[in-house]
Structures are given as structure tokens and as C-alpha cells.
Amino acid sequence: MLSDLILEIENENNNGEILDFLNILDCIYKNKEPNIDGNKFKNLGIEKRENDFTIYGKNYPLFKMLHYFSEIPLFNSEKESIIFLKNNNLNPSKTYFELDISEKEILRELTLNYAENKVPDDYKPFVNDVIFGNTYYFSKYNMELKEYVSKLNSAYKLKEYDIVKNCILKKELPPKNIILKYKTDLSKTIDLFNKKLNNTEIRKFSIDFDGKNFDCQYIYLKQSLWDKLKGWFFGEINGIHYPALVNIAYNNPKIDYLKPFFILNDNEDKINVVARVPKLLYLKYGLTLNHIKLNGNHTYFGKWNIKNFKKILDV
After folding, report:
1. Model confidence, pTM
2. What domains can be seen in the chain, in order of their start residue?
3. 3: which of 125, 151, 163, 264 is 20 to 30 A away, CA to CA?
4. Regions of the chain short of the pLDDT cut 50
5. What domain of life does the native source organism fall in (predicted)?
6. Mean predicted lDDT score pLDDT of the chain
């Protein structure tokens, strides 16, 4: 994981500025709020913006940014997103960064109102905190830090460890060809995964947390010999993308956006687990998955032995 490399760099350095930068990157990677003095942000060329639009993809066309917002599915298709934006006098092809101040305010208000109308009444008070919050920008590139961390993570997943390390130490971006290679492979994997979702029964189980019972959903990617043979000819789902897939899955109508979702797959005598807790559930109930032997924050990782697997899923 990228956090392992960040820790490795941290252990090799005693430069205060580098250590602060590593701390911030690690927090962003783990979906945590950086606890850093404001002057240190300034010295690192990082700008903190409060009550900012937190939807991912501000460097993508608006219609894509809104359509692929997975916390609260807003539109069933890109076409619906385009029509919505045009009807409100916003150019669907512009990026969020290309909007002027008044256009950004219009988009913020429209998105909040639209999202509140999509969720059940008891979740409406939490929608604002899903859409707005603190964001951090790398002033050097006019880029959100979570986008920068995403690029670093892309290179890391391709095992370009020295490049990632050098980028962090010099506060630079990974080469574009590496990012393109990762995105191309991710795109293929998303297509394969969506086909799998559409042709596979979404299984259900429940977990107890803080005196309440929560319904969950999962897909078990147990490969048969036939599945492995098909993979040779038609491609197979690349496991390095599971953390992205568990988030992207909420754009599929088969996945309930108000329930945790798990991707399970075999790993010799254990089960690899990647899971996601929707932010609405976290904000309303404080729900996490640490109590079922998973690590993370919103997105969770872990390995279950067969005993835990059968106990938790009751199979």
C-alpha cells in the first residue's frame, strides 16, 4: 500500500518539511483530516479551503463529475447529467475549475438540493456534510491533494516505487505515460467488473454495530478453472483495482448506495476483503468495519480466514 512507502520514506528522513508533507499525504490517503498548523500548509504550498465542494473529479467535465458521484447516485446516465446542467445554464463540458465564482455557487446549491431530494428524509440532514467539507489544494499544480495522492497511488500500484518516492521528495507529478497506463488498465477492469456485477447475484448478510443491525451486500469472486481459462482470452479483473471498484460499484443500480458493499476473493487459505461504508451511514450512525477485522476509514481492507469468513457471513 502507498502508506507503507510513505512510512518507509518517513523512517529515512529527519527533514521537518518532508515529514510534514508525508504526514499530510498519509492522512489524505487514509481519508483522515490532516492535523497540521496552518503555517506549515503555507510553507508546503498547500491551501486549505473550508466548506468546499468535495465531489471528486473537478478536473473532469461537469457531467461526468456529477454522474459518477457514487455517495448519492444523482443521475442514471451521462445524458441525464448533461440535460440537468444545460437546463440550469451550465456548460456540461466545462470542468469545475473553469467555472466562475457565481457558476460555482449555482452548481453547489443545485447539487445540494438535488441530492437532498434523492435520499430518504432521515438522511437529509447529513447530505451537506457529504458534499461539502475541507479540501486541500497543491497550489503548484492547482490540483486537489486527493487527486495528487491518487496519481501517486496509480504509479505505486504499477510497482514504480522509486518514481513515487522521487515524486514525493521533490513534490512532483508522476510521468503522464505511467498514469495513462494505469487508467487504461483500470478502464478495462471496470468494464469487466460491471459485466460481472450484471451477471452475478449480489449476496446479502448483516452485521451488528453499536446495538444496531445493518444489512450489507457482497460479491464473491471465487474463480473456477473455467473462469481462469476465460481470463486468458477475454481478460480478468485486476486485483490492484479492488479499492477503486468497491467505490465505483455504487454507480451500478444493483448496488444499494445506503448499504456497505464488500468484494471478496480467494487468496489461498484466506479471503481477501475490500469493503466500503457509504458516508451517509458513517455520518448518521458512526458505522465502521474495524470490529469485523478490517482496517481503514470509509474504504476497508483485510484478510479473513475461513473460520471468520463463515462466522461473519453465516455460510
Report:
1. 0.88
2. 2-175 (no CATH), 186-313 (3.10.310.30)
3. 264
4. 225-234
5. Archaea
6. 90
